[in-house]
Amino acid sequence: MDKFAKDGDYLTVFLPATSEALVFRVRSIVNKAFNLIDYGPLPIHQGTVLKTIDGTSTTTSDYGVLPARAYTDPIQFPTQLNVYDNTDMWYIPKEYRDRLFHAIQYVKPAWIRVEVQIPTGTIQNRFQKERVMGGVERDFGYSRGSIEVIHFPEVHYGFRYCNDLNIDVNTFVRFEYAEYKIEIPMDAQLIYDILIRKVPSVWVSLPYSVEDSTFQSSLVKTYGITGFPLRGINERDKAIREYQSLLKDVKSVWGGSE
Amino acid sequence: MKELITVYGSATPTASGQSGDFTLNSQIAYNTFNYIRIPKGTKLKIWAKRISGTTTFTFIVNYTPNIISRSPNWTTLGSEYLSSPGTLELEKRKPIIVNGFTGNEAIKLSYSNTGGSGTLTVEVDIEITDEE
Question: 0.90 exceeded by the pTM?
Answer without folding.
Answer: yes
